[in-house]
Amino acid sequence: MRTISKENKINEEIRDKELRVIDETGQMLGIMSRDEALALADEKKLDLVNISPNAKPPVCKILDYGKYRYEIQKREKEAKKKQKNMQVKEIRLSTFIEDHDIQVKAKTACKFLQDGDKVKVSLRFRGREKDYTAKGREVMDKFAECCSEVSTIDKKPTFEGRSLTMFLAPKTDK
To answer: Which residue, 88, 99, 112, 116, has most beta carbons within 10 Å?
Structure first.
């Protein structure tokens, strides 16, 4: 016995007495008994597949089951292909980072953004660096400016405990 899922039953697995039957061309044949529908499917050397089990009476279609299953799998695979998988990458900075180092990290962030990922930029204040929050914001602004060609600021720099975090999202060309 073969089934696609718990819902789609084929041939002898169908237990309902009356079925609404559709032939392989998509033409409605009407409501008939299960035995008549199975005989009709057998005559055409095809399968009787329950495509809508919750309807009253259930809708069954006469078709090639293997081909039907292949087309469903193909559609699911195509839908999966079109999905965009976005990740959040993290770049860490420090309060007293040099300009060249900011540019190097910005270049890396730009690669992530061009691949379609979001970037979380975090700057951790250690010890007495907490007194230099203005310098931290300045570093964040420089970083955002370096990435401004390929990104937009998704979330402005905010404090989360001892660190300053900012999110950059890829620019969408409309």
So the answer is: 112
The domain of 154 spans: 88-170
pTM exceeding the 0.70 threshold for the entire prediction: no
Domain boundary residue among 50, 79, 108? 79
* pLDDT band at 57; cut points 50, 70, 90: confident
pLDDT digits (tens, 9 = 90+) for 20-31: 999 888 899 889
Distance CA 68, CA 96 (A): 63
Q: Which residues, 6+ apart, have CB-to-CB distance to 93 below 8 Å?
A: 102, 105, 121, 122, 123, 139, 140, 143
What CATH number should be reported for the domain holding residue 19? Answer: 3.10.20.80
